[in-house]
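Curious: why this fold?
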Amino acid sequence: MWTTDFSATTDASAAAVWAALRDLHSGTPLGLASDRFELHGPFAVGTRVTVTPQGQDAMTSEIVELEPGHVYADRTAFGGLTLTFRHTLVEQEGRTSVTHTVEIAGEEADAVGPELGPQIAGDFPVAMAELLAAAEARSTGAPAEAARV
């Protein structure tokens, strides 16, 4: 297995971050760089999601972990590999830390992970900035446009 992650912290509450994350994964883009998501059922474990990364073809994922306010993960099968994308939220001392992880598993994961993983995770900083801006806008009551990065 090969893995990498990106973390950031915000003054927004975990509830505000979770609401923005749920909106994104339910089909509401948070900014110009947002990947596009289309749910095929409820926002729940087992539901399939069509994900269209910026400038790429759509792929189908499945929600595999969902702990409201704390963890969201979906998994995509990709040519003998499985890609698991996870957001983990931890609230402490009035701030929320968010970690976005990608895990690449499968027979060739150790061989292709070092090249494929950074390509996949390359947009994590921009995606995280959009997520946190949307959460902070929710927390302050700012209009949705304020969340655009």
Remarks:
- Residues 124-140 form the longest helix (17 residues).
- Residues 144-149 have pLDDT under 50 and may be disordered.
- The two ends are 33 Å apart (CA to CA).
